[in-house]
Design a protein that fits this description.
mainly alpha, single chain, 6 helices
């Protein structure tokens, strides 16, 4: 639910579109959640097949032991993505994914010295997941269907 009232919203240039925007509000948010979660799961699917495959990479970032962090990374991306797409445990799954993405921002921006241009995709993904950490899964989620959310 939004804290804004109709009086605080700007008037639309084409008022007839108001109904369309209202009708698509939840569907658009659900689509964003499903796509973000699905893409995160697809990205993690390569890692879940070989959960120790990123051991050297995570140790290169300073996360020791890599044999612990690499499978955790794989599970966070793959299973977390599925949970986000379904809207089940949306906030904790999105929070875990957000932490992973903030590490990738650090990696690209600082460690690799690529600055904004190297980190911009991770920043965009982090912003999307931060949105779901704050908002949760919405009414079209498993969280809403079971009547429980974090």
């Amino acid at each position: 639910m939004s804290a804004t009232t109709d009086a605080s919203r700007p008037k639309l240039m084409i008022p007839a579109l108001g109904r369309l925007y209202s009708a698509l509000h939840d569907a658009g948010e659900t689509l964003l959640r499903a796509v973000a979660g699905g893409f995160l799961a697809i990205h993690g699917s390569q890692k879940i097949v070989n959960p120790f495959g990123a051991t050297e990479m995570v140790e290169g970032l300073g996360f020791y032991p890599g044999a612990f962090w690499s499978p955790l990374l794989a599970c966070t991306e793959f299973f977390g993505g599925i949970l986000i797409a379904l809207g089940l445990f949306t906030r904790p799954a999105a929070f875990a994914g957000l932490i992973v993405l903030l590490v990738t921002v650090w990696f690209h921006w600082v460690t690799m010295g690529q600055g904004f241009s190297g980190a911009e995709k991770s920043l965009l993904w982090a912003a999307i997941l931060a949105f779901f950490v704050i908002r949760g899964g919405n009414r079209h989620s498993v969280d809403a269907r079971i009547g429980r959310a974090f």
